[in-house]
Amino acid sequence: MALLALGLDPCSLLGLVFFQLLLLLLSPATTMDSGKGPMPRVKYYAGDGRRALSFFHQKGLRDFDTLLLSSDGNTLYVGAREAILALNIQDPGVPRLKNMISWPASDRKKSECALKKKNNETQCFNFIRVLVSFNDTHLYACGTFAFSPACTFIGLQDSHLLPILEDKVTEGKGQSPFDPAHKHTAVLVDGMLYSGTMNNFLGSEPILMRTLGSQPVLKTDTFLRWLHPDASFVAAIPSTQVVYFFFEETASEFDFFERLHTSRVARVCKNDVGGEKLLQKKWTTFLKAQLLCAQEGQLPFNVIRHAVLLPAEAPSVPRIYAVFTSQWQVGGTRSSAVCTFSLTDIERVFKGKYKELNKETSRWTTYRGHETDPRPGSCSVGPSSDKALTFMKDHFLMDEQVVGAPLLVKSGVEYTQLAVETAQGLDGRSHLVMYLGTSTGSLHKAVLSGHSTAYLVEEIQLFPDPEPVHNLQLAPTQGAIFVGFSGGVWKVPRANCSVYESCVDCVLARDPHCAWDPESRICRLLSNPNLSSWKQDMERGNPEWACAHGPMGRSHRPQSRPQLIKEVLVVPNSILELPCPHMSALASYRWSHGKAAIPETSSAIYNGSLLLLPRDGVGGLYQCVATENGFSYPVVSYWVDSQDQPLAMDPELAGVPRERVEVPLTRVGGAAMAAPRSYWPHFLVVTVLLALVLSGALIILLASPLGALRARGKVQGCGTLPPGEKAPLSREQRQQPPKEHRTSASDMDTDNNHLGTEVA
Ligand SMILES: *[C@@H]1O[C@H](CO)[C@@H](O)[C@H](O)[C@H]1NC(C)=O
Ligand SMILES: *[C@@H]1O[C@H](CO)[C@@H](O)[C@H](O)[C@H]1NC(C)=O
Ligand SMILES: *[C@@H]1O[C@H](CO)[C@@H](O)[C@H](O)[C@H]1NC(C)=O
Ligand SMILES: *[C@@H]1O[C@H](CO)[C@@H](O)[C@H](O)[C@H]1NC(C)=O
Ligand SMILES: *[C@@H]1O[C@H](CO)[C@@H](O)[C@H](O)[C@H]1NC(C)=O
Fold it and tell me: Which atom of ligand 5 approaches the CA of 28 most closely?
């Protein structure tokens, strides 16, 4: 046989074949292709102890859809199905219920809802959709009220909710949607509620509306088709003079063979009072423009999902951050992008040219005609002329697009929500931190520090079962973000710096909230950014610079000294499994064996672990080395030794602390199995396959007298079996004819000599 001719002894051959087969069969659910774009450096599954989250839930309550933070940041108001709760979030740990009031839809509305063929088990309830702070003593809330929207004021006493009086409940059309599945948005500005939602039972009439307060109630005019009937609102953001609405609708200005979605920003002036003769009780300042979030040369991300404003400290301009997905799936996966828009750009587009619909060709073209002064649609004081209002009826779409800058583009994920804040790093600079909720219930923490694209510090799977993240509420004073979902409210601390166990890991993580404290040797939450001895390198994430005393070239020490050496004793006839935790998805991992190469014929790497078949000369130092950001460091170091002939320790490693550890074993010969491993069933399959392969090989060998001679000679000299152990290969070979290889597991039970059985 070729392999034998290559000079490999049969045990190496066995080892090799065994490992290769083991690997083939075990080939684990390799890290699923999580698409293009930045990878989260660390990933936590639901319930991972390294990222312990607090969870609030209340028996009998569902759909924790709306979150509102009190102005002092100590109370979280939650709108659930038919109830509103006040949670005390002041203390660390699980949020505590302060009190709760119920607000069910009336029985009459519920039966009407069921009569209209809506589901009385899932839809005919009061789902809270609007929850805002009205003044110091009152909240204002709206709900779907069994497909009959209703609103009410809720009194507060020491941030406890006072019961809702039935006669204080008013109609809420235009403020809350009818259908809990419909999108909506609302914001309270100067005592007035600006809302964007569906205004009818069928969900075919979108509306932008202003209610409450002293100013007249204003609406969009349905007849003028300022909004496409499928408009879906995701955010409302007030600015100095105007209120911006972010939404998505079918674009009618493009000729396209399929329904084309487009993202929009619309704006209305706060001082709008409606027209006198024309556009009575209607907006006279409604304008909308297209939002473009695209990477050059690629299909645009045309569906906006959520938008937030990050107020800026002067001199920089406030910016809008928004998540987008695409209507098209490329390669069967959805992709998402985060884009940022400056308010200045948005303002500029609204001051630019209008589009108008050419009635003859039914096409939208740039309006090049005369503009009156004051400009139609501007927030000028004083009543607009009839002429300007007539113009406004048809000129509500801006010619130019607002072009955003993509900060993060990622395929294979669908972002549904975001929250942003800035975090001050050790260097005093401020870094943008974005928390991105996905359609499958995970949270990405993305950081933008100086450069133009963001990286993902971590991904936390929040819910055990995938469901979209519907809302995120940052609570900066608590250092946490709250996530409401169907079953309760999660409290997610901004970071758990203690998961980074070394300075290297702490620095490579590039989490602006974490820094290494060399004194206590702990990666800590950065609370007071004036600790000159702490280590962080947000700019480059270079541990060599941050973790050593001052800067030094990367080439001097390619690899740092291990912090701890784990001592492992060889057990005869067993495969040693040396685990290596793959903490960072951005690192590449490899195994090293002192200065020598890993003995290839008696080792294999499975799921990051090094599997070692003990043979002579296999002992020594084994290190799992991670390389990340151009820096290599040992993740774990093992000293493999045998009891009989202890090896002399490398003098270079003197002084490194040592610890005796047990590692998982798989027995491959000899007596009973030591520790049954989780992949024991796979092992059985392997042995069966190996039996097939080797019996085939034996047939070939026996067919050639020379080969048979050579084989017999080699087989008997199987070197790794300790003295006294029977030589299974040769014995079984003689006892059983090649055809009768046994394959059932029961055979193995009676004859524990597995390798022998296989070769038969
Ligand atoms: C943070 O991580 C450490 C180390 O993995 C763990 O022991 C601790 O419980 C974690 N704490 C939280 C709040 O997740
Ligand atoms: C829904 O209606 C069915 C009959 O139409 C009734 O049996 C059921 O109890 C109702 N469910 C609820 C939650 O009211
Ligand atoms: C807050 O608003 C409510 C509802 O309009 C009103 O009754 C109450 O007097 C207001 N409280 C204050 C302090 O303005
Ligand atoms: C910050 O540290 C410097 C010295 O490193 C010190 O002079 C200064 O007073 C500190 N500032 C604060 C606010 O603690
Ligand atoms: C891969 O290794 C990790 C630990 O390093 C372990 O948690 C995981 O269960 C292993 N996967 C399989 C399929 O063995």
Answer: 13
